[in-house]
Amino acid sequence: MDQTALEHMATNLASHLRARGSHICEPSSYAPIKRANGTSPAPVERKYRGVRLRQWGKWVAEIRLPNSLKRIWLGSYDSPEKAARAFDAAFICLRGGEAIAGLNFPESPPTVVARTSDPREVLAYATSHANRLGCHHCTGRSSSGGGGDG
């Protein structure tokens, strides 16, 4: 397929999505970010599953529901370890206590709870586990887990 055909397909798809009321990111909106001095920032290496760094320095966590495209927001945290612990707790809620292979910290899994896919219950357990006192992975800084700043 040549470049013209690809551009035509992309234009048709964008028109279709706009007609349905979907938001379309224009190419300029995902161009590489440049610093004030003109250099690109170093890419952030993803160390933990379900965790990413916001531009303003907060670490956020979210998880996909099994067999679905839907996601559950797990909150914003001051450290990547806390966000990763929130992901681990949500992972256990959604997949059960035997599913430790997908955890960020398999050596210290969250306590097993009843399986649920209710987003409010998953969020509550994830926030509680992320903020657990005495966690040897975390620095003890506060978080805003469960906040709606997604």
UniProtKB/TrEMBL annotation:
Gene3D superfamilies: AP2/ERF domain (3.30.730.10). Its main location: nucleus. One of its GO terms (molecular function) is DNA-binding transcription factor activity. Residues 47-106 form the AP2/ERF domain. The keyword Cell inner membrane does not apply. InterPro entries: AP2/ERF_dom (IPR001471), AP2/ERF_dom_sf (IPR036955), AP2/ERF_TF_ERF_subfamily (IPR051032), DNA-bd_dom_sf (IPR016177). PROSITE patterns: AP2_ERF. GO terms for cellular component: nucleus. Keywords: Activator, DNA-binding, Nucleus, Transcription, Transcription regulation. The keyword Magnesium does not apply. It is found in: Nucleus. Pfam families: AP2. Belongs to the AP2/ERF transcription factor family. ERF subfamily. PANTHER family: ETHYLENE-RESPONSIVE TRANSCRIPTION FACTOR ERF042-RELATED, OS02G0781300 PROTEIN. This is AP2/ERF domain-containing protein. It comes from Oryza sativa subsp. indica. The lineage of its organism: Eukaryota, Viridiplantae, Streptophyta, Embryophyta, Tracheophyta.
